[in-house]
Specification:
Shape: globular
Number of strands: 7
Helix content: 10-25%
Radius of gyration: 15 Å
Structural class: alpha+beta
Largest sheet: 7 strands, antiparallel
């Protein structure tokens, strides 16, 4: 299978709220291209467009997201490793998110051009 990536347009923020925090209702409205909400015993972690950062969250802004064109079959292996290896060689840190259908690789905006070069064989268009 040939992996293809699409660069999503908005800038994203990685946010942390207390584990007992309520998911802000405004995040659940609308049709964001990408939104990730994960709750663990230690935190409520949200990746969202910067314009939707929850009030009171600890925030790491300035992320750009590459979407693996899916859906991906669950039997496939090494997808994240295949994409992160060239980024690691280029000394680019990543934040990865997996969903039922596909994977997302986020990089800091200051690393975007280097990430595009490293991921050029996989970029759509």
């Amino acid at each position: 299978m040939k992996l293809l990536l699409e660069l999503l347009e908005p800038r994203f923020a990685v946010c942390r709220l207390d584990a007992r925090a309520t998911v802000p209702a405004e995040l659940l409205q609308g049709s964001q291209e990408f939104l990730s909400i994960t709750r663990t015993a230690e935190e409520l972690s949200i990746v969202c467009p910067e314009a939707l950062v929850p009030v009171g969250a600890k925030v790491q802004p300035g992320w750009r997201a590459f979407k693996v064109m899916g859906p991906l079959d669950f039997s496939l292996t090494g997808i994240i490793a295949t994409l992160t290896a060239p980024l690691a060689e280029a000394k680019i840190s990543v934040f990865a998110v997996a969903t039922y259908d596909t994977d997302y690789i986020l990089v800091q905006e200051q690393d975007l051009e280097g990430a595009k070069r490293a991921l050029a064989p996989f970029l759509r268009g």
